[in-house]
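Researcher: Quick test of sequence recovery. Tokens follow.
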């Protein structure tokens, strides 16, 4: 495919991508702030993590498919198609009547979201040279900063004054404007070629991940059911790897992933995604339930994370020129576990400012890990593989989010059972299944103590994952002088 976008129209394409990015970014901050209230109203706190896991599962499964499809059929139709699916699911999610329906619509949302971020980043890679790309990525990063401020504020206002359905319906005007912009200004010349999409591999992968998530989440099932889920996971996982070895167009190219740079970058991104989703899903309920603050305050602790991330992206090109890519990546990623340390010292009397500082440091470290991984991977392959290579990074992050949300959610549930000693655990679940349950925890100190102790187990999980991420970045093969002066790899 040859890109034929006129330079005068490139800014309008970027504006369209900015709108798409803002739609996804603000969705993350609004939902993270409002989900405790929504889950309390619908009931079923046990399945709290599934609201995130279902979305992330669908996103991670489809990301690599969309990346490959964009290499074959062009970026424009795949990106617009993903946005349409995302908007339909968003409209439906606002009418969810139960936890099951909400999880189902979040699953459909994830299917659409799987196209938006990787294909948008690939379009930027197509339109701009490496030295120009950092500036445009900085613009996109600023979108995350803006959404970090407006998302929690909008989420708090909506939950307090309107139907929570507007948490999802707010996507509709943004998505329609994005589609209009892409339709008018993004023009492509496509060289048709035959391709076979690895749908069977996608099926095996989905079955393996779903069985793993069910195994980790459904802790009340007997040994027989858990053993059966484990068997399904092993069999489907084995069939998935066999399929990838023989498929002419595998969902995951083993040859691509076997390259050391891509393998280590993806591993670091996966671990970072696991840690970051733990922070995103657990910190708001800690600030509300244990520290006794409002959803708005809880949202702003996450704001610091999303401020730190784009700030690191915007400063990355300067860091590369001054210190080189390797030093920037290794030193910057140290901020990831340092930020997680702040979570370990949170107590019921702590200030939310401490949580905000930890969020900012983790966000800054994640920003450097993310942008460096994308740049390194994109520059290591030719154009015809750029969509798939970029999608591999997004896939790794999404898979990490999926596993992290589920594993850390399971740790939280185990912690509640362990520290609750039966009656207190049942009382805590009863409180959390009420719309204002988190706000009522302050009235029952014993129950709040159980919640505090259980959440601290998840904070330890986040810290360990952050340490592993930092260690893995040292395995990414980058020369000492890469990125200096001309910011070239």
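Model:
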């Amino acid at each position: 495919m040859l890109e034929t976008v006129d330079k005068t129209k490139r800014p309008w394409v970027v504006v369209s991508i900015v709108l798409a990015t803002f739609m996804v970014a603000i969705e993350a901050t609004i939902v993270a702030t409002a989900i405790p209230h929504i889950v309390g109203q619908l009931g079923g706190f046990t399945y709290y993590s599934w609201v995130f896991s279902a979305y992330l599962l669908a996103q991670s499964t489809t990301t690599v498919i969309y990346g490959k499809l964009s290499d074959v059929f062009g970026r424009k139709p795949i990106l617009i198609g993903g946005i349409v699916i995302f908007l339909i699911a968003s409209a439906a999610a606002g009418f969810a009547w139960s936890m099951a329906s909400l999880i189902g619509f979040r699953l459909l949302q994830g299917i659409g979201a799987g196209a938006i971020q990787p294909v948008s980043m690939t379009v930027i890679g197509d339109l701009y040279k490496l030295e120009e790309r950092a500036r445009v990525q900085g613009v996109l990063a600023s979108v995350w900063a803006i959404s970090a401020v407006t998302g929690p504020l909008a989420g708090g206002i909506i939950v307090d004054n309107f139907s929570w359905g507007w948490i999802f319906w707010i996507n509709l005007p943004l998505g329609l404007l994005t589609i209009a912009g892409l339709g008018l200004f993004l023009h492509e010349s496509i060289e048709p070629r035959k391709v076979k999409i690895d749908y069977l591999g996608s099926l095996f992968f989905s079955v393996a991940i779903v069985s793993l998530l069910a195994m980790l989440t459904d802790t009340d099932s007997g040994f027989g059911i858990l053993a059966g889920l484990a068997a399904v996971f092993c069999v489907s996982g084995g069939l998935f790897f066999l399929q990838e070895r023989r498929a002419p167009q595998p969902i995951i190219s083993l040859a691509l992933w076997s390259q050391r740079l891509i393998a280590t970058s993806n591993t670091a991104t996966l671990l970072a995604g696991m840690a970051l989703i733990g922070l995103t899903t657990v910190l708001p309920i800690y600030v509300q339930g244990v520290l006794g603050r409002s959803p708005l305050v809880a949202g702003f602790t996450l704001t610091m994370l999303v401020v730190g991330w784009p700030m690191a992206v915007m400063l990355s090109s300067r860091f590369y020129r001054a210190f080189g890519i390797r030093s920037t990546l290794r030193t910057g990623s140290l901020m990831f576990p340092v930020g997680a340390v702040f979570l370990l010292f949170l107590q019921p009397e702590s200030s939310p400012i401490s949580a905000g500082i930890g969020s900012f440091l983790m966000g800054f470290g994640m920003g450097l890990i993310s942008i460096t991984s994308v740049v390194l991977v994109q520059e290591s392959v030719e154009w015809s593989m750029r969509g798939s290579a970029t999608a591999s990074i997004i896939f790794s992050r999404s898979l990490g989010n999926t596993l992290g949300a589920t594993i850390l959610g399971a740790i939280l549930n185990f912690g509640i059972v362990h520290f609750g000693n039966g009656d207190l655990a049942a009382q805590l679940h009863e409180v959390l299944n009420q719309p204002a349950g988190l706000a009522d925890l302050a009235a029952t100190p014993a129950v709040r103590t159980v919640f505090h102790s259980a959440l601290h187990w998840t904070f330890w999980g986040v810290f360990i994952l952050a340490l592993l991420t930092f260690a893995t970045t040292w395995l990414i093969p980058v020369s000492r002088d890469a990125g200096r002066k001309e910011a070239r790899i």
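The first helix runs from residue 10 to 42.
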